Structure formats: structure tokens, C-alpha cells
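Researcher: Checking consistency across runs. Here is UPF0056 membrane protein again:
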Amino acid sequence: MIDYVATFVTFFAVIDPIGTVPVFIAVTAGMEQRDRAKAAMQAILVAAAVLVFFVTVGELILVAIGIPLPAFEIAGGIVLFLFALTMIFGDSKPDEELKMLAPKQNHAIFPLAVPSIASPGAMLAAVMQTENAVYSITDQMQVALVIFAVLLVALILMLGSNLISRIIGLAGASVVSRVMGLILSAVAVTSVLSGIDSYFGLGPAA
């Protein structure tokens, strides 16, 4: 049996439901409440599908194509950093920008579901916490349940963000978006540095 508390804390840290809220506010600014709820649900379902995929076959695929796990931290960190830059230096009215982009891109999937919720760190944790040589099938199912629990917390927080959005208004959402962009850029750089450190720590076999 897995350590539920330790596993929950691990996935809560890498998924970061609290940190997802400002991102959700930014990418759904200007939407009706029903559309925001739909976007939140869609983001959670997509993130759940991605993480379950990595729980079940992620390790097999990475081993088969010879990609080291730290590469996900590095690549994901770069993508997250680019998104953070758009939050910091983008249009001062994020809702107008997102309305223009909506027909071309589903923001519930990118960047909300991936890489905000199903982050590179979460994907990596899903693979590491379900290594076939270490964890039984029962253990892996328990890890999946913990992931669903953290995703449920993220969903509840996003659904509750409607009230926050009404209180702070569009200007407040813009400020939150830019501040969160600064935080995300730091998190992204940390992810890249962590991936580089882990990669070189693997030794010649990597």
C-alpha cells in the first residue's frame, strides 16, 4: 500500500491547484459563468486523461524511444516559460486577446490543462510513482486515485474562481495574470534547472 499522505502532497505540489486559479482566471476572462465551468471541466478531463496515460504507459513509451525522464522537465519548463512571457508582456486586456484567439485555439486545453494542470512535473511524477519494477498494479491504481483527488481539488478551486473574478474585475484579472506570469517564469526556470541537474545526475547511461 502506498503512503497516501506523501503521495497526495507530491501531486498537490506538482499539479499546484492553487497556482492554477490565476491562470484559469486569465484564460477565461470575458467568458460567461457556464462557459467558465465548462472550460474548467474540460481542462480537468484532459489533464486526467494525460496523467492516466503516463501512469499506464508513460514509462514503456519513454523507455522504448530512449527519452530520459528529465527531458520532460526541461521541455515543459521551456513551454511554461514562453506562456509566462505572454502573461507578463501581452495585451493589457487579456480577455480581449483571448476572445480573438478563441476561434483558433482552445485555451481550456492549452495552456490550462497542459501544462498548467498536467504539468511536466506531474507527468514525471506519474511515471516515477508508478514504476513497474517498484510498484504493483494495486499500488499504481492507488496512485491514480490520489491524482484524481488532487484534480478534484483543482476543479473546485477553479469553479470558485468565478466569485474571485467578479470581485477583482478585468483590471484585477490583468494584474493577477501578470503577477502570476512572474511566478510561472520562476517555476519554469526551476523546472528546466531541475531537469538539467537530474539529467546529468543519471550518469553515462542517460
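Researcher: Does this match what you'd expect to see?
Model: One thing to look at in this run: Residues 22 and 177 are 6 Å apart (CA to CA).
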